[in-house]
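User: Need the bound-state model for 4'-deoxy-4'-aminopyridoxal-5'-phosphate:
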Amino acid sequence: MPFTDNRSFKAAPRMLVSADGMYYRTPDGRRILDGTAGLWCVNAGHGRESIVRAIQDAAATLDFAPTFQLGHPLPFVLANKLAAIMPKGLDRIFFTNSGSESADTALKMALAYHRARGQSGRTRLIGRQRGYHGTNFGGMSVGGIGGNRRGFSAQLWGVDHLSHTHGGTAPFTRGMGTTNQDIAGELEELVALHGAETIAAVIVEPVAGSTGVLVPPRGYLQRLREITSAHGILLIFDEVITAFGRLGSATAADYFGVTPDILTVAKGLTNGAVPMGAVAASREVHDTVVDGAGPGIEFFHGYTYSGHPLAAAAGIATLDLYAEEALFDRAGGLARRWEEAVHGLRGARHVVDIRNIGIVAGIELTSREGAVGARAMEAFHRCFDEGLLIRVTADIIALSPPLIVENGQIDEIVSRIATVLGQID
Ligand code: PMP
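Assistant: Bound-state model below.
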């Protein structure tokens, strides 16, 4: 099983069999409040009728069609809808099946772009410590989570990592901090070290999610944009978690007012209902690759299931639903209430830090000696048994409920966590 302690799971399997709205159900009929939107993906809540119907209709109409040298309508419809909510100018869309594939596609696009400009010497890729860009070789290599890398002996070469953004941040900072603000300046040092002519792209999550919700300091992303632009380096935002309303806007790029050259999404694109990811590229990147190529296939890359009819149908219904219910605005309107509620856990047993932005939060616990992650994992199991789904990474609890969450459910999430933390050593 993926990212699972298989022996523990086998000893005590925790199963989910159905879902509706804000709740999962277990085989014995218990309701589990979804504090994590599944895996940060079910932004509109579970079992949404219009998405179910769209998938059923697509399956009955066109179960599969190749998208190599052929087209079918749904991915084009979705591409237009997606382009309309991407940051201005990022309106060239390529479909994948996951966040990992989106990351590797974006990195390959960056290399193809420089090559098409006659700068094939630009091969270095720069990621960030505590970054997560999925589990494929490109994403793993630019990612900065030891556990994802150490077990595998080979990585891409020519990869550097910037420092993560949480180093000097005071505990219990709400939203963006003001310390540590010049940390993006490290990129200038890497440029000085290697030469800009060797660097293809910088890839970051605007807010690091999987390593425990690390909110950048004010001005950080703007500074990365300035430095990359000054040196002809492409800037890639991995918005697999942050897109589709998590911060109260369509993208984090919008929220922070910084436009990258390439932006990756997945998860919330289909409300989690069918696997799908996408990469949005600027016209400059797209046109350079397409116009710069000789006759024939311009971007020699793709997946059997790129633009799959069921996924595209789910994506169209999902983006329509987000718009009809104004869910991004709803999330933005809840953000202050969310902040107050999660910071109410300050003072709860074991809690050493809380950070938040939009409708996402990280609650960091002290680690047990010699057993990093054990305390949070126990909290995860106990919360589940008490009817709440949380997500844990090392000793950090990450929360990201569906954007339909009600105030009472926010309070319930917080109070159940406080109770469980009080019960565990
Ligand atoms: N990038 C980011 C920022 C993610 O959070 C994730 C998944 N948590 C991925 C990439 C990988 O996505 P997937 O699991 O769909 O491959």
